[in-house]
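Comment thread on ticket #2218

A.B. wrote:
> Attaching the input chain for the structure job we discussed in standup.
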Amino acid sequence: MNIFQIAKLSLVNLAVNKVRSFLTMLGIIIGVGSVITIMAVGAGAQSFVFDQIESFGTNLIGVLPGGSEEEGPPASVFGIIITTLTYEDAKELKKIPHMIAVTPYANGNVNVSYLNKSQNVSFAGVSSDFINVEDSKVEKGRFIFPEENESVSKIAVLGGVVAEKFFEDDNPIGKKIKMNRENFLVIGVMKKRGSSFLSDQDNQIYIPVKTAQKILLGINHVSVIRGKVDDKENVPFVINEVDKVLQKRHNIKDEKKKDFTVRSMDQALDIIGNVTGALNLFLGAIAAISLIVGGIGIMNIMLVSVTERTREIGLRKAIGAKRGNILNQFLIESVIMTFVGGLIGMILGIILSAIIALLVSYVGYHWELVISPFSVILSVSVSSLIGIIFGFYPAYKASKLNPIEALRYE
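C.D. wrote:
> Ran it. Output below, let me know if you need it in another format.
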């Protein structure tokens, strides 16, 4: 028998036991589908984060509290509170040549009430440079003046969504809201900007940074400092100057003991790319374990099949079938199951990835459907290879059967 005849016979044998064949393929289907879905979601998330960072502009730099390795993020990125940056640091950084705007941030959540309405809202303590750094615009009223920050003024600029929640169609300018039982005068409403970094920029209240520190948070440090440089070409120079200024202010003699981290947007993209890339590989490797499990399942079913078809094997050998024919038949059956399972898994993985992209887009985030051809080809190829590896032993066992003993088998 040639290879095509053997393949045809293998398909007939698999079709006879449709349910068992499908259940055998299920491990491969889940494995391939999981690998493709995880790789697609990881690539989509990476693209989403890159778009978010690039939307801020390539001429921005960020100063985070806490030291870090040269290519890694500081501990503050992971939610650890570090108190090494201050409002005064931000004021000094504004003096650096080519630095056109600097704002510190002191973030938190607070209970906000107006008349009979009450709700927890996130707030950001910022300086007057915030609108320049973030390229934000005021829709009604005005933003914070520099002197109002120095005097710890109890004023507030509402995000567009917050203004709608508490005032609906009324003009909030000149009205007073309570934040932790303190009266704050509303002086402006920000133009809507949409979501950024999985946070709704319009669902925030902006107040002077010193007011946030002294009245709402009771702290002297800031969460982060962000600065805007006049030109992208001057970013390396400004980063170097920021490093010098903060080392001098914090009395740091050894660079390895710095209590702050300075990053440009380009550096942030590189770091996030490395982190998300490694995470994608790690998750893909975990999903690939199910391919191994599926391969073991196929081997077990094929061993059962050898036992069930012992008399058939004996009969075929008795009428002239060679060991190679028997070996090829069982091996091809195994490869067909894994290959078909891989194709079904590929289709399901692409469909699931598309559904996830649609759901994320539906809730307001731009999410690209990124299906890597490499992940598709690799998954299907690996599934077929698993069919050969795990199908070889049952096929070899079948080819070794003695025809006389096989014919006597009950």
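A.B. wrote:
> Thanks. Noting for the ticket: The chain has two domains: 3-52+271-408, 83-258.
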